[in-house]
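# step 3/5: fold
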Amino acid sequence: MLQIKNISKNYGSFSALSNVSLTLPNNGIFALLGINGAGKTTLISILCGIVKADKGEIFYNETPYFEVLKKDSSLCSLTPQEFAFYPTLSVRENIDFFSQINMLSPKKRKEMVDFALNICDLEKYMEKRAANLSGGLKRRLNLAIGLLNNPKILFLDEPTVGIDPKTREFILKSIKSLADNRLIVYTSHYMDEVDFLADEIAVINEGKILDSFKNGCQNRVLIVKLREHNNTNIKILNEFMPFIEYGCYLQSSAADEKNLLKLLEFVKKQDIELKSVSLSSPSAQTLFLNSAGKDM
């Protein structure tokens, strides 16, 4: 279990993190959501030992986190959004170089290289120069390098930026397959990825955790699309039950079959036409907007 307790980080008068506390399990996928500048990268940088927190404590299985990190090179690894390899080297040369950093025995090193290459399906591209790889293959090489120490905690910072849908699907399935025996901390602006991957979600904004929850465990919400989406119709509906407007649809947390039937009777009397209406679990985007929208 990874326990983050009251972590703060200031850069001069700017508060990048303010008393951030989270408890993360030893396996599964934990999504950290926030707009650019919300504090995601600062928190990950602290956990990777790149940046030092001004105050707070971090524990891994009840042992001070940085004591474990100092002794165990397989505790964590970071796959950043930027490409973290040498473009002038081949895939093989990059893998050989980065696999030596972990100071593993030759046998263990081979095991880790085979593991990373298999997960990312890179074997047939070993002699290609990294600079000449497609965007999707560069992302797969980036991920493979992050797996070379078989980390217990894998930090993935927007690992699917700028790639085609097919490669994106491959990477997401690969990430999901890794989560059974490690913790993956995942950041992305693609909410459909979070819906697919995340077991738990936390929303951060202006350096503070606004909310955290298990994905898919929230109460259902009522989602309504109007035939005529205008202020008059929205005002009438809000007088009946509270709705929040998200683009072209409305959402209410007063969601059960009884209220749905009442709503259908009400709009019929008011002569309001519905384009669609449904009861469903809220998406990651809805949860994010509910938590962070009012504070952005």
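# step 4/5: annotate
The mean pLDDT is 86.
# step 5/5: archive (pending)
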